[in-house]
Write a structure and sequence with these properties.
About 60% of the residues lie in helices and about 0% in strands. The chain has helices at about 1-15, 20-35, 55-85, 95-105, 115-120, 125-140; strands at about 40-45, 50. A hairpin with a 5-residue loop joins strand 1 (about 40-45) and strand 2 (about 50).
Length: about 170
């Protein structure tokens, strides 16, 4: 993004230096339409205004920690209720896995690994066999890979006050 703005600025400077007045004003007008200054102001949990980048990052960290703690508590409750139900489940089969993969929706954003659903679906039998081997390993060890616990979180504004983390 920064490169695009630098390139645009150089074009405007060049038009000004070469005395291309019409082009200069046209570029400035287009650029000013595209640019929207973003206020980087948020509120802490008590409503105090935060303007320093470090304070804002700390606020987002606290907000997400609170969300995750609530989610983990609910998840633990569900896991405790479902443990008995899981005892009688058979080991997954290759056919089960391929059926589930075929039902997955295309166009979803990949995680930190950058592997898309389309790649898995169209990667052929070798990829499916490797995924199945990994699935069986996870089943036998009853443990997910640590890398799968890493996620990318992008807050998306819903509605209300943009300075409130809870509105994202």
């Amino acid at each position: 993004m920064r490169e695009m703005w630098n390139k645009k600025t150089e074009e405007i400077k060049g038009a000004n230096i070469k005395k291309y007045v019409r082009k200069f004003y046209k570029e400035v007008k287009e650029t000013s339409k595209e640019y929207q200054q973003q206020n980087i102001i948020y509120k802490d949990d008590k409503g105090k205004i935060l303007t320093e980048a470090e304070d804002i990052l700390l606020r987002w960290q606290q907000y997400f920690q609170c969300l995750l703690e609530n989610e983990l508590q609910a998840q633990e409750k569900n896991e405790n209720e479902n443990i008995e139900e899981l005892e009688g489940i058979d080991k997954p089969t290759y056919e089960d896995m391929t059926e589930i993969i075929s039902k997955m929706k295309n166009g979803k954003t990949p995680g930190i690994h950058n592997i898309t659903v389309e790649l898995i679906k169209n990667g052929g039998t070798e990829i499916l066999q490797k995924i199945f081997a990994l699935l069986l390993q996870i089943w036998d060890q009853e443990r997910m890979p640590e890398e799968w616990e890493i996620g990318i979180t992008c807050p998306i504004f819903k509605k209300g006050d943009r300075r409130e983390c809870s509105n994202y």
